[in-house]
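Quick review question:
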C-alpha cells in the first residue's frame, strides 16, 4: 500500500479530472432542453465517491494507459453508474427520495425527466466511447470498450442483476442466488471499470489478465456486501441515502441471510481473496490495493 496522504492526493486529482471532463462535455444547462441538461448535471456533478473512475485509473497503471483515454473511459463508466442510480431511485424501483444527501433526481425534476435523464446518460456514455476524436486511430480499442461497457450494463450485467433483485423480494433466496445477483447488479460495472482501464494501455500477459478478473470478482462482491452492512448499521445522514431500506423492503441481502456480524466477516474474506489476486499483479497494483482497502473500510 502507498501512504494515505499520497493516496488522498492521487484520488483527489482523479476526482477533479473527472468532474472537469463531465462539466466540459455534458450539454450546457443554458441550452434547450434546459431541464434535461440540468438534470444530467445534477445526477453526475453532485458528489459521489467516484469509485468506478478511481478503479479505472488504478487498473490503467497496470498497462501504463494514457490519462487522456482513461478520463474518457472513467467518465463513461460513471455516467452508466449515475443512470443506474437515477432509475434505481424511481418510484417503480426503490422509490427513494434521498441520494448523496440531496433530493433524488425524480424528486427534483419529476419522474418523466428522471427517466429521460437515465436514458440520455446511458447513451452519452457510448457516444463518448465511440467518438474517434477521443481515441485517435484506435477503432479496435473503441469497439472493445463499447462491448465491455454494454455487456456490463445490460441483461447479463447490471440491469439483469437489478431484475433479479426485484424478483428476490417475493421469495426466499439462497446465498448462491444473492451472490449471482450481486455479481451482476454491482460487480459487473466494477469489473468493467477495471478491465476497461487496463484495456486503454499495453496488453497484459494472460496470467495478469486472469488475476485482474479474479480481483474484480472478489472486489465486486465485497463492494455490495459492504453496502449491505452499511445499509443495516449506518444512519441516513452519514449515508446520504435512506438507511435501513433493505430490511424494510424485505430485500435479499447478505446481512438478511447471514446476519450483520457474519456479513462483515464475509467482506473480510473477500478482501483477503482480492489481495491474493493482486499479489500476482506486482508493484503496479499498489493503487488497486489502496482502493480495495478504501472500499472495504468506507463508512458511506
Ligand atoms: C434499466 C429501467 C432500468 C433501470 C436500471 C440498473 C439499475 C436500474 C439499477 C442498478 C442497480 C444499482 C443501483 C445497484 C447498486 C449499486 C450500488 C451499491 C450503488 C452505490 O454506489 P456508490 O456507493 O455510489 O459507488 P456513489 O453515490 O458514491 O457514486
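Suggested answer, residue by residue:
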Amino acid at each position: 500500500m502507498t501512504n494515505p496522504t499520497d493516496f488522498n492526493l492521487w484520488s483527489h486529482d482523479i476526482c477533479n479530472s473527472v468532474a472537469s471532463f463531465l462539466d466540459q462535455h455534458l450539454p450546457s444547462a443554458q441550452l434547450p432542453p434546459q431541464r434535461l441538461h440540468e438534470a444530467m448535471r445534477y445526477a453526475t456533478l453532485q458528489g459521489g465517491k467516484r469509485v468506478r473512475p478511481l478503479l479505472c485509473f488504478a487498473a490503467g497503471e497496470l498497462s501504463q494507459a494514457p490519462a487522456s483515454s482513461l478520463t474518457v473511459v472513467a467518465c463513461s463508466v460513471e455516467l452508466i453508474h449515475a443512470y443506474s442510480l437515477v432509475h434505481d431511485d424511481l418510484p417503480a424501483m426503490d422509490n427513494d427520495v434521498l441520494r448523496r444527501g440531496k433530493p433524488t433526481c425524480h424528486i427534483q425534476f419529476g419522474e418523466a425527466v428522471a427517466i429521460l435523464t437515465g436514458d440520455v446518460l446511458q447513451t452519452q456514455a457510448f457516444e463518448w466511447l465511440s467518438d474517434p476524436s477521443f481515441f485517435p486511430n484506435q477503432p479496435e480499442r473503441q469497439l472493445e470498450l463499447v462491448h465491455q461497457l454494454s455487456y456490463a450494463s445490460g441483461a447479463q450485467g447490471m440491469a439483469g442483476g437489478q431484475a433479479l433483485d426485484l424478483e428476490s423480494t417475493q421469495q426466499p433466496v439462497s446465498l448462491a442466488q444473492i451472490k449471482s445477483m450481486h455479481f451482476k447488479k454491482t460487480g459487473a460495472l466494477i469489473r468493467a471499470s477495471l478491465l476497461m482501464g487496463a484495456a486503454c494501455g499495453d496488453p497484459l500477459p494472460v496470467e495478469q489478465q486472469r488475476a485482474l478478473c479474479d480481483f474484480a470478482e472478489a472486489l465486486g462482491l465485497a463492494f455490495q456486501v459492504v453496502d449491505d452492512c452499511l445499509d443495516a448499521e449506518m444512519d441516513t445522514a452519514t449515508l446520504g441515502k435512506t438507511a435501513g431500506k433493505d430490511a424494510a423492503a424485505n430485500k435479499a441481502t447478505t446481512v438478511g441471510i447471514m446476519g450483520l456480524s457474519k456479513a462483515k466477516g464475509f467482506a473480510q474474506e473477500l478482501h483477503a481473496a482480492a489481495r491474493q489476486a493482486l499479489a500476482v499483479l506486482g508493484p503496479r497494483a499498489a493503487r488497486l490495493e489502496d482502493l480495495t482497502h478504501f472500499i472495504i473500510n468506507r463508512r458511506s
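Why it works: The longest helix spans residues 206-233. The first strand starts at residue 98 and ends at 99.
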